[in-house]
Design goal:
The complex is a heterodimer of chains A (116) and B (110). Chain A is mostly beta strands and 116 residues long. Chain A has no helices and eleven strands. In chain A, strands 2, 4, 5, 6, 9, 10 and 11 form a seven-stranded mixed sheet that branches. A four-stranded antiparallel sheet of chain A has the order 1-3-8-7, with no helix packed on it. In chain A, strand 4 and strand 5 form a beta hairpin. The model of chain A has no long low-confidence stretch (mean pLDDT 97). Chain B has 110 residues and is mostly beta strands. Helices cover 0% and strands 44% of the residues of chain B. The chains are: A mainly beta (116), B mainly beta (110). At the A-B interface, strand 5 and strand 10 of A face strand 3, strand 7 and strand 8 of B.
């Protein structure tokens, strides 16, 4: 069965950096696009970024463009997002999600808290 | 990248049908065949219920159905059951090669 396990969340000060990871199993990772989607406490879902199966084409929400970088290592079945210049409004649970046009599986999420 | 518009809450009694709307623009819902719906129970990850406007993934009850007219997509749940109580989110692929979610709708089963 599809499993997506995120890690790397924690507390960071404004302006700081954090790298999240997502280890995938149960499917051919290199054949699927992957997303990061976040959810601020008590709020709705917000799409953050997407990378195609080959890792070349990447897309970002305006709110994170220039600060976040998505990447993947298909040899390790792992998805990453490097988050720089973090702001308090980036505080959220970050979900790793499988899918191209449609997201069909989600991880359980990792909490990122940006606070001084 | 403005969020799609959903009602904040809807409610219904067991056995009834409810419909949740999701309104966007011609650059997302209106111009896309890739509208999805997700169910999220408290403290849990979202679950895909409908994709490509009206397709149901394997394992999802046929009580869930999706449709679209113009810039508005809809999720209908028939024969409401207690376990349907959750938050529901729509999502659309956009003409800018990005994705946008709705603000979410809290479904209460009375």
């Amino acid at each position: 069965q599809v499993q997506l396990v995120e890690s790397g969340g924690g507390v960071v000060q404004p302006g700081g950096s954090l790298r999240l990871s997502c280890i995938a199993s149960g499917f051919t990772f290199s054949s699927y696009g992957m997303h990061w989607v976040r959810q601020a406490p008590g709020k709705g879902l917000e799409w953050v970024t997407f990378v195609r199966d080959d890792g070349i084409n990447k897309y970002y929400a305006d709110s994170v463009k220039g600060r976040f970088t998505i990447s993947r290592d298909n040899s390790k079945n792992t998805l990453y997002v490097q988050m720089n210049s973090l702001r308090t409004e980036d505080t959220a649970v970050y979900y790793c999600a499988k899918g191209g046009i449609s997201i069909d599986y989600w991880g359980q999420g990792t909490l990122v808290t940006v606070s001084s | 990248q403005s969020a799609l518009t959903q009602p904040a809450s809807v409610s219904g009694s067991p056995g009834q049908s409810i419909t949740i709307s999701c309104t966007g623009t011609s650059t997302d819902v209106g111009g896309s065949n890739f509208v999805s719906w997700y169910q999220q129970h408290p403290g849990k990850a979202p679950k895909l219920m409908i994709y490509d406007v009206s397709k149901r993934p394997s394992g999802v009850s046929n009580r869930f159905s999706g449709s679209k007219s113009g810039n508005t997509a809809s999720l209908t749940i028939s024969g409401l059951q207690a376990e349907d109580e959750a938050d529901y989110y729509c999502s659309s692929y956009t003409s800018s090669s990005t994705w946008v979610f709705g603000g979410g709708t809290k479904l209460t089963v009375l």
